[in-house]
Amino acid sequence: MPENRHPATKTAPDTHFSPVVSRLSSEFSGVHHSSTVTRCVDAARHGAQDVTGRATPDLVERIARQHLQVLAMAFAEQH
What we know:
The chain has one domain (17-24, 31-78). It is built from three helices and no strands. The chain has helices at 18-27, 34-52, 57-78. Helix 1 packs across helix 2 (34-52) and helix 2 crosses helix 3. The longest helix is centred in the C-terminal third of the chain and has 22 residues, at 57-78.
């Protein structure tokens, strides 16, 4: 399988998702570093694109939020 199946999604971060990153960064401030939020949003965007063929901001936000919640729970269990 080629590494770059969706060339448009492998470029610089999509500014279309900046509000999603901003909202989730605020929601998870003190829990996750902003770079973690950005990576989760990017992964959610790629996952949505791969599974459904499109990545709407609302779908990406819901997926990324779930991932961030799971990461927070896993981190809390380690302490």
